């Protein structure tokens, strides 16, 4: 990188994108500091990919302004593209090339001075030296994603934009992938990553939740949970589905949702919810226990308030 690394890597205000008559990103402002892992969450079609594409200079916003890596997103898109690693949802490698050949090929596309050495360094870093001669098609889904991540980091970008990089990957491989993201961040790389998985959201330094193109909340997980001001009870026992339906129609209950064998019941008025807990709990076969609101409780509540289907 030739330009000095700014401490604020992404700073945008009022980003808006309209496709046809639909505003898919609506007046979105955000700020991401260097070295941060910033999670982007939201339902399908909420505008995450469109936002990412505006940030890295692939799409021009219809309104709004801002900078990415210190470059203007409206006028310096080429500078941004050169310094960003972007792993798209459909990122794919050549199945009939070996792992080493894939990395060398990508290194050549990026115009790196020594593609062979760059690929060798990436193989070592990714722990793939033993398998360098194996065809990419033979890798498991998790390893394919790690290889794709390695390919995106070949030109030593200052910012990584990862669009649902672990969709459809098993939990162990997702965990390994996230370990790699943390290693990269520890080396000073900034990472913006979209995901639908709550456990992944919990591994981010900060998260933003976007629905209907609008950024509804942003902050650390602790801040987001605290700001939501939800009181939550965890209900266990029989007939939880029936109880959930009754509670959803009860004033004072903002959210009632089943998580495995427990029903989470949340509301903003703590006193009212305590009354509801007493009223529904008295003599009932279910057990009501005061609990802590989880990130998922908060997101479901946000979705309901935003007028959408819960997740
Ligand atoms: N080039 C385009 N032309 C028209 N509509 C588009 C275009 N790109 C995206 N859209 C629409 O914009 C909306 C937002 O899409 P986007 O891909 O940004 O959402 P997302 O949050 O990334 O969704 P997902 O989680 O499913 O990937 C969707 O309704 C999508 O169909």
UniProtKB/TrEMBL annotation:
Q: Which InterPro entries match?
A: AAA+_ATPase, ABC_transporter-like_ATP-bd, ABC_transporter-like_CS, P-loop_NTPase
Source taxonomy lineage? Bacteria, Pseudomonadati, Pseudomonadota, Alphaproteobacteria, Hyphomicrobiales
Per the record, the similarity remark reads:
Belongs to the ABC transporter superfamily.
Q: Say yes or no: keyword Nucleotide-binding present.
A: yes
Enumerate the UniProt keywords alphabetically: ATP-binding, Nucleotide-binding
GO MF annotation terms: ATP binding; ATP hydrolysis activity
- The answer to whether UniProt assigns keyword Magnesium to this entry is no
Q: Which domain of life is it from?
A: Bacteria
Q: Where is the ABC transporter domain?
A: 10-237
What is the name attached to this protein's record?
Answer: ATP-binding cassette domain-containing protein
